[in-house]
Amino acid sequence: MNTENSQAPKNSENTAHSVDTVSGLLYNIYQLGGPIFLPIAVLVPFAAMTYAMFFSESILILNYVHVMCGVLWTGFDLFMGFILGPILGQLPEKDRAEVFKRLIPKITFLFTTLAIVTSTTGVELVKTMGYPMDRIFDFPWIVAGLVIATLLGIQALFFLIPNEIRILRQLLKENPNTELINRLGMRNAKLAGLQGILQISIIFVMANIRF
Questions:
Q1: Residue 132 pLDDT
Q2: Whole-prediction pTM
Q3: φ and ψ at 73, to 5 degrees?
Q4: Contacts by 39-43 with C-beta closer than 8 Å and gap 24+?
Q5: Per-residue DSSP letters for 99-136?
């Protein structure tokens, strides 16, 4: 009996510590996201990018990695904003919070990885296609692509990712604020739809760059 009482505060303290530190927060996110899913979602795109940029001399492989990651990123954002978002909006708050608990850890890593790989391979592709980087602003379509990419980056860094971290911190508490979770989650779902629209715009830009 005494052993149980003495262990309870210790376990509670460890849980609080794990939530309040960066390493502990990342570990909990990793566990929520899935020990199998997250390594695949992160390592496969980065491995493909590394091979395409440093070990392959084929522009087709580089283009394939760029287009594939871009299509996945765009598709997921459109799905979040225009399909999943409205469905979540009709669910009770408790059920919606449970969905976010399983969804946010996965998309936080997956979307960030796809965004980094798509942007990095895109810049490398522009260089490989022969556009001079010191005169890049002489090409209107390239400038248009950079503007849209900048808007996507601002949304991700200053709105989407901070909201996701706030949601995760709430989910890892003993008494999470479901109202805050739902508000931030729905806000991110709408922002994902906006990102999807911007990504469709950048696809139009990319088509004009190529042809």
A1: 87
A2: 0.82
A3: -60, -50
A4: 41/106, 41/109, 41/110, 41/113, 42/109, 42/110, 42/113
A5: HHHHHHHHHHHHHHHHHHHHHHHHHHHHHHTT--GGGG
- Contact, 52 vs 121, CB < 8 A? yes
Q: What is the DSSP letter of 164?
A: H
57 touches 48 (CB < 8 A): no
CB 101 within 8 A of CB 171: yes
Tens of pLDDT along 106-155?
Answer: 888 899 999 999 999 999 998 998 888 888 899 999 999 999 999 999 99
Residue type, 141: W
| Sole residue written with tokens 């849209």 | 148
CA 23 – CA 145 distance, rounded (Å): 36
**In the chain, what are the domain boundaries?**
33-210
